[in-house]
Structures are given as C-alpha cells and as structure tokens.
Design a protein that fits this description.
The chain has about 80 residues and is mainly alpha-helical. It has three helices and no strands. It is elongated. The termini are far apart. About 10% of the residues have low confidence.
Length: about 80
C-alpha cells in the first residue's frame, strides 16, 4: 500500500514540476532523480513480490500433501 501512495505522490510531483518556474537545469535533475526513485521502488516491489511468491509456493506444496479425513475413513462401495 505504501508503494501505491508513493506512486500517486510522484505523479502529482511530475504534474506540477513544469509549473514551478524552476530553471531548466534543475528541472532536468529533478526529473532524473524522480525516475531513479521510481525505478528503485519498482525493483524493490518486484523483489518483494517474487519472494512472496516463492514462500507461498513452498507452503502450497506442503498443503497439497494433507489428506482429507472424510475420504480416508469412507468405506469402499461394491
């Protein structure tokens, strides 16, 4: 949720940046800095999501081995 809020504020920042009346050099540097922040946040979010998928995949394999008691106690039909 923090990343979504960050992305929203970065969008607002990028919207207002041209209207701030800053010199061209400053605008360029601020745009570069903003793009670096977006790249780093996206990369960290990707790594977190990948780690979460790996952990969920590991626990999913364990839960598949659990046998339902209803099927194991039922009598065979002839």
């Amino acid at each position: 949720m923090i990343n979504y809020t960050l992305y929203m504020w970065v969008g607002v920042w990028l919207f207002f940046l041209p209207f701030l009346g800053l010199p061209g050099n400053w605008k360029d540097r601020l745009l570069i800095l903003t793009s670096i922040v977006i790249l780093v946040c996206a990369f960290l979010d990707y790594r977190r999501a990948k780690r979460t998928r790996e952990v969920e995949g590991g626990t999913g394999a364990v839960s598949e081995g659990v046998v339902d008691d209803k099927t194991s106690t039922s009598e065979p039909t002839h």
